Amino acid sequence: MKKFLGVQDIGNLHDAVAEALEVKRNRFAYKHLGQDKTLLMIFFNNSLRTRLSTQKAAMNLGMNVMVLDVNQGAWKLETERGVVMDGDKSEHLLEAIPVMGSFCDLIGVRSFARYESKEDDYSEKILQQFIRYSGKPVFSMESATVHPLQAFADLITIEEHKRTQRPKVVLTWAPHPKALPQAVPNSFAQWMNATDYDFVITHPHGYELASEFAGNAPVEYNQDKALEGADFVYAKNWAAYSGDNYGKILCQDRSWTIDDRKMSLTNDGYFMHCLPVRRNMIVTDSVIESPNSLVIPEAANREISAEVVIKRFLEEMS
Amino acid sequence: MKKFLGVQDIGNLHDAVAEALEVKRNRFAYKHLGQDKTLLMIFFNNSLRTRLSTQKAAMNLGMNVMVLDVNQGAWKLETERGVVMDGDKSEHLLEAIPVMGSFCDLIGVRSFARYESKEDDYSEKILQQFIRYSGKPVFSMESATVHPLQAFADLITIEEHKRTQRPKVVLTWAPHPKALPQAVPNSFAQWMNATDYDFVITHPHGYELASEFAGNAPVEYNQDKALEGADFVYAKNWAAYSGDNYGKILCQDRSWTIDDRKMSLTNDGYFMHCLPVRRNMIVTDSVIESPNSLVIPEAANREISAEVVIKRFLEEMS
Amino acid sequence: MKKFLGVQDIGNLHDAVAEALEVKRNRFAYKHLGQDKTLLMIFFNNSLRTRLSTQKAAMNLGMNVMVLDVNQGAWKLETERGVVMDGDKSEHLLEAIPVMGSFCDLIGVRSFARYESKEDDYSEKILQQFIRYSGKPVFSMESATVHPLQAFADLITIEEHKRTQRPKVVLTWAPHPKALPQAVPNSFAQWMNATDYDFVITHPHGYELASEFAGNAPVEYNQDKALEGADFVYAKNWAAYSGDNYGKILCQDRSWTIDDRKMSLTNDGYFMHCLPVRRNMIVTDSVIESPNSLVIPEAANREISAEVVIKRFLEEMS
Asked: How many CB pairs under 8 A join A and B?
């Protein structure tokens, strides 16, 4: 594995989940793999779960960990080639990346969509430069278009809680005051499409996800109808992807908020969200605090998904 | 031990001090206890000594350590339940706390009094939520009303330096340009009251501490009189506690500053302060630099008090 | 070794380089040296390479590492004695330094020139206080006047790439939009003067370096002439040192930028720079991306120079 961005990088999903459950039972059993190996975690954006869970996973595996918050205590980075650097940016990514690669064995990168250029975002411009220039294996800790450690943790959580062989899983858009990236719904859709679940997407018109991620998943524009009989309700806000609306907020309709009535339409369904979540925008206090809420177990599984992915990188090094 | 907030959580004080002196002689003797255990240190406020000493103590014990500065690189946290989260706060404490608890075995929290609500502060609203919702043992790294690792380090320092069985220890208020919390004087008073020392508090009228901490310690409003024959002078500023004056500065009288004349009233007394200290407000250059100043040994003992407390948590886990 | 600031602290240079190459071949061979030892890295200023490479070096040696960004999450520090501290600074260096020293075995300090006072900068006022008051060995991670870990890494890099016994090495000033410290050129000149290389300095009039660092190295004011036959071109901007011009920008002449024509004057010379570098100010894209650019191997050797220096400190402790 040279990189971890999507479901295609993890191989057989049944094997991956089985490995995750094994790691979860004994998370310190592979400490020899990380000996004298260093993970560098690079944050261009804020993080709580990813910061802690990935660090914990690497320590479980016996690695040394260095955390770099690019915007705190380092230098502002130029990302465009050919520029005369006479402004506020002291260093170019083309130097910074191979330098960072020099001091570690594995790199995790968080770099959100900037919504300045759809092409830049959807080419994963920042992350791809790390893959190309760092000389080290690279994984996404949520980048412009994907959040694969989250989607893998979501899959593990569903496997742990499903009550039927082929559960109905609904990804539903929900309202939010700010324009958010599509990374989480993209990855969730991509991973769900790779399972044999009954997977449905629901959102207002105009919020269609990129086809490379949404695939052939049915889209139901009536949220109530989509939720009928759902075993898992995965709520998430995202800004528009399509055409000139890229990065725009088209709807703030609070009737899409997941509340008790919405959940009553489901098959005693579980509520899921990647967190951080805005209460009473995305979901009501009542639903997120209910026994059917999986938001905490789902977050806890971030340690496990990260450990499996890092373990696989380490196995290829040794 | 599920929590460490006050003197009541440490058990017999003689045993605790004896254990501290043993740990101080051989601080790496208990490294096996922390193997595969992770401390999460969470800072809502600035820290120098606590940050370094607690991290050092945990590493002495063989633990992994993760440090989270909530206001740098993480998400702004909502603390009120029932709010529609459409503002600048992306995550609720009710999610963030159990998530943080998922990735560690022990949690230290720094969360100062905000002086917005006496009730919130004196109910230790933030810290108590960590105790209630994290699922892990929690200790105060200075919270709204207490700073027990400091008070324990102070006790160790007094025990190391006392020249009589029952020294006279004076806690004295001193002037400061900003409103400071009562956490340090509260804990110092609480711990001193649990000893058999001759303990006296002196401050201007209106600066009475909460009775749950001040207990039956005599209050002498004449500083000079209080200092007579003191073996240890513990200086500290705090804002008013009583009634409507909560959080207010009532006095900036520089005659309360500890200077050479004040120290000459003592029994060749030692000078103590928890640091950080404002020179020539709380204490003169001359006194803090004198051979009788214990501010550095006292700070160094923060590593020891933290190590004893963390060691006890670890012993209960294994 | 009580301190590491300059070439005089490293002893015989041939031995130091030989030790570096040995460490580079097996960077984990000395892990026993750092057991139960803690490095404290203190940053008053930004850092990327130094932050990562020094941390990596210490971990290679088995040390625990604590990183403190003084301006993030700690207290603002007063540096002047005798001040009534009623402003925004909560703590004095005279307390902070021995406290920091209490919690570690070795201290690295980054503290740039402030250009407020030539005397303060050139007396290394901040760093010298750490040496004097911390009670622990101290090394510069770039201080007001020197950057010895960089110069040592540069020396290692030249030794790895030189094609003649006595290469011609040219330190050349280059333009930059901001006033930069002289630490890097000072240390580079000092270390080159300690070798038997043919070392030449070139810069516009008025940019003469302090004689304590420039020594007897010839200064050639015609850059083209200086570059003739160079084996290594070390580019760097710095602000003026001399007299009343201290800290000022006297020249922004872009004809000093290192481009392909400049490099064509050399003996197929290598390009070097300490990074971060402003592209198309200091050096063109074409030169820095050419096969003769050593900026990345040079940065990678920062891990090695740091490991040798820390290793020597540790050897004296055990």
From this structure: 88
